[in-house]
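Quick check before the chapter quiz. The format below is the same one you will see on the exam, so make sure you can read both the input and the output lines.
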Amino acid sequence: MPRLYRAQPDSSTIQDPRVFVRVFAPPGLLSPTVDFYRALTSAPVDMDMEWPEAQLHLVAVGAFLIIELDPSAHEQAAATTTTVLVAGLDDAVAEQVRRGAEIVQSRWEAPVGAGALLRHPDGLLVEYVEHRPSPHDVARPGPQFS
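Here is the expected output.
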């Protein structure tokens, strides 16, 4: 069962998209990687999302989305270097397609909300996501990031 801490669990009210650089932490090195980016940015952990059954753990610190995942999934995930959190996924995808982006993977549903994978006209592969409240939401990050 996922454990989802998000300081703002519903992105429908955000005014501007939030752009994340994806950082991949080898298994077992999530905490020191998060500590490095906390020191770099002076930003708190404002997302700590863990899916044990998928061997996936994501932590947001400022503009960095730090991802620890099963090594067998790393190569495919690493091709996507950017995640964009938007107020509404369908509107954002429609706008980017209108501007020349290509849908690589259409809308999917996840415990945090929905996502889609687009290739921008310059070739950049970008994951777009919207967050919505979930029954798996918790009030604070895990103990290693509190």
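If your answer matched, good. The radius of gyration is 15 Å.
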